[in-house]
Design goal:
This protein is an alpha+beta fold and 716 residues long. It has three domains: 13-221, Immunoglobulin-like (Sandwich); 234-584, Rossmann fold; 603-696, Immunoglobulins (Immunoglobulin-like).
Length: 716
Amino acid sequence: MYKKNITLKIGVIIIILLTSSCSVFAVEDNDSNTITMIYSFTTPVMQKISVDSNTYDQVDLDGAPCSGDPGLPSLPAYGASLLLPYGTKVERITVVPGAQNSLGTGFIVPPVGEPVPFSQYPPVSTPTSSEKNYTSTAIYPGELFTEVGTYSFRGYTILVLRLYPVQYIPYTGGLFYYTEFTVSVETSTDAHINSLFRGLATDAEGVRGKVDNPAVIDTYAEHTCSPSSETYDLLIVTTETLKAGFEPLKQVHNTIIKTLTEIGSNDPADIRDYIRDVYLNCSIEYVLIGGDDNIVPVRKLRVNNEDIPSDLYYACLDGSYNSDGDTMWGEPTDGDDGGDVDLIAEVYVGRACVGAVAEVDHFINKTLAYINKSDTSNHDVWLVGEHLGFGGVAEYAGNILEELINGSSAHGYTTVGIPNEPDKYLIYKLFDRPGYNWPKSEIIAIINDGVHIINHLGHGNIDYAMKMYNPDADALTNVQHCFIYSQTCLAGHFDLADCFAEHMNVKTEYGAFALVMNSREGWGYYESTDGPSQRYNREFWDAIFGENITVISKANQDSKEDNIYRINDDDQIMRWVFYELNLFGDPMVGLGNSPPEKPQKPVGAESGHVGENYLYTTTITDPDGNLVYCQWDWGDNNLSEWLGPYTSGEEISIAHRWDKKGSYEVRVKAKDTYNAESSWSDPLPITMPTSKSTQMMSLLAQFLHNLLQFLQNLLK
């Protein structure tokens, strides 16, 4: 789902975003410690739905999906993300509603369904409403907002709220909604300054797409840090035994490899601390965990009495994940001061579940083969659905997967899907239907024929997915490796035995170059194409094709962050899925075409004078011959717009002027027309020792000195 962009200007109100159902305004407040936003809503749409032979009145408000906890009325909720000014914390939140409009009475709003694991076959959980909830005369939810939590992205502090524009009186069936909310957040000085703030222009650009009030980014600008002397894009954490096997990744990524011996520990807390240190000192953006769980341990995070293996722990580096010091990590109150744990990633993580050198070789060879592939014409996408037995429209997974074709506005929110266009992607379907259950031989043939992408929904187990068992995965013969996203249960359960995802990814030279799979159960709803796991699935492809986040690890994380405002829904099952979706693969790999190569190190003046323009040149090569764009980081907290397009191999020259004396590093990155990005170039160090005025004064002083000497000589 697209995040909203709102600009805050002193003394004015500016409309920045209009959607079909909601518009958002930023408002200047005379009190500089207050952030004020206006969220406006249009009239909700009512429709009749049938669930388990019961008829209900569903409330639809685009951009505000219906959700909540099982048995409670299912009403729209809208997510708001607000950036707090630098060095502040939340003091008080107020929401003032606008006009109240009645939708009528006598409505029976459906209850939120009970999530059903895809390992349960057939399910028995139908949506049920409790008599207590549906005979109450009290307004539900009876509050205008809830505070989801305060999170951090690279030192930028983000407040997430959940707004309730629609209210319900169960006893009378009355529904009413508010046309707008004025949200005010009063802040105060925070003595704790977030140590993860790096002051990089790329970080500022990253937070811009995550918040509703990006103008507040300017409050962070004056606190920028000096760039580190040694920068990398990727950190690989592995062992001495496996280290050499990962060296070939340095050919395609700007990589630093560190072993547990060098880190000095194999404890997850110490590994996380080390990742944090490299993040701060070497500007990394990606981390590859180079080992199975028994080699580089995973942190298990607690949800509903279940410990879920989650590499999210190594991605979200802010604060504690166990502030109460018990044996359970990742609880909703395990963050600093009893708040939520950090859920917004500083770095993007993938795992190579390898335990031997041969498995490292398989992983590396498949990764490099995909990155360096010469044939980019394979655009085949297979949607693979099984018989779920969840009743009604959810009896077969195919109905759920249909929401991925071109996109969907089902269930109160809009996501961009996989484009079913011959020049982009060709979408094929392998669906169980009444009277037909496809055999595993069909999916095996599809993989062996060289499919590019598989999106799967069906029942699974640790050693089973897509009707295949581990030995079936080991027997594959495909030369073109695929990417697989699956909602199935347990196939990514890498903390016990070798799971299905591991067999597809590292056990042989065939199979998949990367997978996103669940380390525990995936979840759906009875008689609905909505469900906890499907929400992440839809947002993943929206990230790829709607937000142009083509790097798989980033898209996986974006799918989670787009769902943060409902992290506690479904009796914490949304949190369950947030934790369990792990990437088995290289975190820097983009899906689709190959990204441009790392640009040539900029060439130009390495010293000069403040206030003068200097020209810098680079060359960018795209392995697919696509047109390319470039973005320059001038080292002075100025990041250029994307410039171009240019042809692959063209010499590109850009001028820049520095306004302050100092030392800087100039670097450049590239992207192609499919938004696949390169790593940053090697930096060119620059010094600006003097200004124009200083130079002129120096020349004038020299002139006067020479003139004086001349006059003295005349008088002799």
